[in-house]
Amino acid sequence: MSWHGIDGHDAVAEQFRRALERRRLASSFLFVGPAGVGKRAFALKFAQALLCERRPEERLDPCEACPACVQVAAGTHPDLDVVGKPADKSFIPLELLIGDKEHRRREGLCARIGLKPFGGRRKIALIDDADYLNAEGANALLKTLEEPPPRSVLILIGTSPARQLPTIRSRCQLIRFQPLPAEILARLLIEQGVAGSPEEAERLAALGEGSLQRAKQLVQPELGQFRDLLYAELQQGTFNSPRLAQNVARFVEGAGKEASARRQRLHIIVRFATDFYRKRLRTEAAAQQAPDPDRTARRLDCCLETDQQIDRNANQATLIEAWLDTLAAA
Ligand SMILES: [Zn+2]
Question: Is the same domain home to 147 and 15?
């Protein structure tokens, strides 16, 4: 069973349906969960259900054929607004939220969500990449969060509540999206032509850790090879960090000239290491005789921190060096 082709999140759909039936839908939501589990697809389908002209919203069952449904699917519905972080920026620019300097509070998402709905039902706004709201951006949203326009729905899509400022966290209803079960991931990989065989689908699904996006990234054979190389180094405990840093930097550059492609690849590598230490921590906990379990925990923390810094850091080479030096010294 999947709700309108959105796999793995029927419980969330049910939660919204009940709220709508009781006419108690909140106006601001923070969607959190791993990247690539379908949060954005869910939000768009939810918007479609709220705006559908043929079926009452409490059914949460968009007809997918009326003009409103078609417009939502095409990204042209006048009552649905979507903003996100531009690829060349490290945060969501203020003007997307409240207009540029000449039009403050008269343009941007916050002004548009305050207008009367064109279709007469609701105004809906999605903020994708909400992990990249800086303090200025979060503050710009405060007024809308504190006094939501009637019948407006604002959805922020991020990965974890910890990455949101308290001003946002405390004013939104938190909706958690779970990682996709491996069998759903494997099926999607086959359906979408990413995996050629059930065996490959299973292997990628296991590595994808609940994220379709991640499983897809791992299809590139060079990534699998690099992961093996990295694991062999980390396995040694005391590795040559300058040499490994050079290898990592070269591999990241191999992703292409685009800064976003390079960042993406570095994310994958840092997450390989994160997985490595997470598994080691589990093994150590099970064995109850680790030489120094704190050391693995410190290394894991360092990987998690580095992962967060990738999008904020212009100098990747320095970041890679600092990361691996810390791991080696831990
Ligand atoms: Zn419809």
Answer: yes
Expressed in angstroms and rounded, the spacing between residue 149 Cα and the centre of ligand 1 is: 24
Q: What is the pLDDT of residues 78-107, one digit of tens each?
A: 999 999 999 888 899 999 999 999 999 999
Q: What percent of the chain has pLDDT over 70?
A: 99
Rounded distance, CA 154 to CA 168, Å? 12
The 8-class DSSP code of residue 164 comes to S
What spacing in Å lies between the alpha carbon of 170 and ligand 1's midpoint? 33
Lookup: tokens for 182: 């491996």
What is the whole-number distance in angstroms between the Cα of residue 78 and the centre of ligand 1?
A: 15
Give me ligand 1 centre to Cα 56, in Å.
9
Structural domain of residue 33, as residue ranges? 10-176
240 in the same domain as 128: no
**Quick one: which of 3, 21, 1 has its CA closest to 12?**
3
CATH number, domain of 128, equals: 3.40.50.300
For the stretch 224-277, pLDDT in tens is 889 999 999 999 877 889 999 999 999 999 988 888 788 889 999 999 999 899
